[in-house]
Amino acid sequence: MNSILATRAAEIRQEIKKVIVGQETLVEKTLIALLAGGHVILEGVPGLAKTLFARALAASLQVSFKRIQFTPDLMPSDLIGTNVFQPDTHTFKFLPGPIFADILLADEINRTPPKTQSALLEAMEEHQATVDGISRPLPEHFFVIATQNPIEYEGTFPLPEAQTDRFLFKIKVDYPTPADEMTLLQQEPFSSRVEDIIQPKASAEDFALIRKEIAAVTIDQTIYDYTLQLLIASRQSLQLALGASPRAGRAWIKAARVLAALRERAFVTPDDIKELAYPILRHRLVRKPETEIEGVTVEQVIDQLLASVEVPR
User: Cα separations (Å) of 208 from 139, 204, 252, 281?
Assistant: First the structure.
């Protein structure tokens, strides 16, 4: 099977490796989210190259990229844009904000108040932004990469469930392995901009072919049944106050199709569903207070959910 997706993904990985050491899981899962039409939250402590990765990904895809630092005084108009009066013509002209980009890096998204966070809701779900009653379409490949720090909570505004559910994946960005960090320590500083180092590897024509590959991936009824049983188990769990939504289930199936195509398979397996359970569910499941007091993590709850549902053969 001569897969355009697998070929382009391998080329993109090689380009990103020019500036990012290791982090293979981050690259793969972010590509899956992009191709599944979702958005991602990257959670990790400062200094793990989350911003650099977002720039590198955009450069490898030859798409527009904007970064906005979310701060407590950020207003919705700073994100979406605003109408500005033109004295010479006595008319208003719309000045688009950074949201009108293919890839938007929402840096430290939980540092801005809910009023501004909610400005992203329409954009992420409907791929449009409305200003003064006029809706404007966003770029075709609009994709949000949000970052947040899991340690520092002072002065932050946790994302409401309605917004976290619109993110396809929550990806944990961990420290590099000792071998990767040694490579990083010995790496020479970049003498050029990231955009000048990385070569674009995917065109608009490639995206059209890749979508056909993904659509051709088949899903057996047993896979749908398995996914549904996991969703129901999350809602019935005694450890959770909130389980996975129907939106999570649809996203799960979409992402599984992309993962299968990426691994050059024409069908989805139960292992695909199991592998994606963690990035799909970790930001959607809300633990009960007593579960948190007992020190049970979201990942442990997901482990138990996967263990409680029989895997189809």
Answer: 15, 7, 22, 29
Q: Which domains are seen in the chain, by residue range?
A: 4-205 (3.40.50.300), 217-308 (1.10.8.80)
- For 50, the token pair is 């989350």
Taking Cα atoms as reference points, which of 109, 114, 77, 113 lies closest to residue 96? 77
Q: What is the pLDDT of residues 2-59, one digit of tens each?
A: 688 888 888 888 888 888 888 788 888 998 998 888 899 998 887 777 888 888 888 8
Phi, psi of 107 (to 5 degrees): -75, 125
What does pTM read for this prediction? 0.87
Give the rounded distance of the alpha carbon of 102 from its chain centre: 13
Are residues 39 and 144 in contact, defined by beta-carbon separation less than 8 angstroms? yes
Compute the distance between CA of residue 52 and CA of residue 207 in angstroms, rounded to an integer. Answer: 23
Question: HSE on the CB side for 272, CA within 13 Å?
Answer: 27
Residue whose entry in the numeric block shows the structure tokens 């998204």:
109
Q: Work out the end-to-end distance of the chain between its first and last CA atoms, rounded to an integer number of angstroms.
A: 24
Could you give phi then psi for residue 258, rounded to 5 degrees? -65, -45
Query: Whose CA is closest to 235, among 163, 161, 286, 292?
Result: 286
**Residue 184 CA from chain centroid, whole number:** 25
219/226 Cα distance (integer angstroms):
11
In the block, tokens 């199991």 appear at 274
- Contacts of residue 78, defined as CB under 8 A and 6 or more positions apart, other chains included, come to 68, 97, 116
Give the amino acid at 47: G
